[in-house]
Amino acid sequence: MLVDWQQITEALWQTIVMVAVALFFSMIIGLVLGIVLVVTRKGHLWENKYIFTVLNAIVNIFRSIPFIILMVAVIPFTRLVVGTSIGTAAAIVPMVLFAGPYIARLIENSLLEVDPGVMEAAQSMGATPWQIIIRFLIPEALSSLVLGATIATIGLVGASAMAGAVGGGGLGDLAITFGYQRFDTMVMLITVGILVVMVQGLQSTGNILSKKIRRR
Question: Any transmembrane segments, and where (predicted)?
């Protein structure tokens, strides 16, 4: 069967848009949640048992739900936000809800790896909690944060492919609609190949950036 490259290009663009937009909003949510989870834990800058306990539970709940189930469960919320439950825009909503808490955990782990001596030195110099977070904590963890963002981006690529199972568009939708349901092996192989190249490229780029930051 002839391969429709225009269709493949369009599906690839939909996947890139889904991943890019979802990553943008997920990083904002994840960064806020991750920082709050760190600074409100016991013995940290803004220790608050209640805030930490509630946020920790929320993050754990969302992380425990498989993406395909989450995507179906939040259909009413998706319709409320974008006005539809199918298509590229609709797939972005559950992707953000899926990746946000996951990124929060990655950021939390990266920030907790920072040597406590760095914060003690900052406090001894009279730095405020906000200055410690922005000028010391995040810069010290930046290399690890880049790797975390890389992992999250790859996870979103996988989620975008799964979104195709419910009409989310992108390469996953193309693979299921044409590759699987119409038994077009070539389309299936091409979409899988593109996804593999995307993941390899993202991982290599993340590794290079992380190494450059660490050397500084």
Answer: 12-38, 50-75, 81-104, 145-166, 186-209
Name all domains of the chain by residue range, CATH numbers in brackets: 5-215 (1.10.3720.10)
| Residue 16, phi then psi, degrees to nearest 5 | -60, -45
Q: What integer best gives the mean pLDDT of the chain?
A: 87
Cα 79 to Cα 14, 93, 98, 169, 203: the distances in Å are: 19, 9, 17, 16, 33
Helix or strand holding residue 56 (H, E): helix 49-63
Could you read off the pLDDT of 56-102 as tens digits, one per residue? Answer: 999 999 989 988 889 889 989 989 988 888 888 888 999 999 999 99
Q: How far is CA 113 from the centre of its chain?
A: 20
Residue corresponding to tokens 């199918």: 86
In degrees and rounded to multiples of 5, residue 87 shows phi and psi of 100, 175
* Sequence-distant contacts of 153-156: CB under 8 A, at least 24 apart: 153/19, 153/23, 153/202, 153/206, 154/199, 154/202, 154/203, 155/99, 155/102, 156/18, 156/19, 156/22, 156/23, 156/26, 156/95, 156/99
